[in-house]
Amino acid sequence: MIGEVTGIRRIRMLYLQLLYRCNFECLHCFHGKRLKHADAFTADEAVNLLTLMRDQYGTEAVTLLGGEPFVYKDLAYVVRYAKQELGMQVEICTNGYRIERRLTEIATHLDLLRVSLEGIGSTNDHVRKFGSYRSALSALDIARGLGVRTGATLTVTSHNIGEVVPLARTLQNYGAEQLKLHCLRPVGNAADHPELLITDSAAYIRLREQLQTADLTIEVIVDEDLSENGAPEICAPAGGLTQIDRIEADPRGALTMSCKAVGKDSHAFWYDKLADHIDHRPSATDELTLAVPDVVYGRV
Length: 300
Prior knowledge:
The protein is globular, with a radius of gyration of 18 Å. By secondary structure, it is of the alpha/beta class. Helix content is 26%, strand content 21%. It is built from eight helices and twelve strands. Helix 2 runs parallel beside helix 3 (75-85). Strand 6, helix 8 and strand 7 (219-223) form a beta-alpha-beta unit. The mean pLDDT is 93. Strands 11-10-9-8-1-2-3-4-5-6-7-12 form a twelve-stranded mixed β-sheet.
């Protein structure tokens, strides 16, 4: 259905939000009140969608998210199925909080563990949860011992922009290969915390200068909205592109192609879990109708 409407024939990666439930309530989380919702994929629904994406769109990789994917009871089954049965590259994005036992169970089937951090020490713990910084670093250390490649994500805010370079150095000391920097968008919980927003775009210029002169060995990937003039306007496909890098499925089955539409109920497509197919459900506010631009990433 996606191909018929947009012309897209290939989607490289599926971002699969397995559930809304989380053991954190981060101040910037785009899910907001949905963290309390019970919506989730069953294990069968998750592997059905993965199989559909591989067979119909050549999807070769999956990133498992939540909520918190490590509180999903069937995580090991989904990881093993994606790797062994479908031959996919498997990444998990996690808060890293007390995941050691379950991580050990799936390590041989996992290509990348990515932890979310929002600064160093108390800066991170203020946004996420007390003790979460040390727990995330411990998860990176254990993953390295298990032979699992690691990386991290950080959403740049007014509270942590001065800690990006020190955090990058800490992460590379723990063996992390990549740090991905996201722009904060005022949806979900972030809409209730405007103090986290950066109002002076010159701060992004200083951040980029610091990164460029820091002599880091870790790869740093940057959302191009973290710049003085913002990212170029690259919109959702309207018959031009035949492939895209990613699509995201939320726990209800809503499918979103643009990261800038995630959390805004701007989806034009929906995975029908019972029928195991993708529906086109257009609206006046969907990402195709509004031509919502996708996020553009670059390397520092």
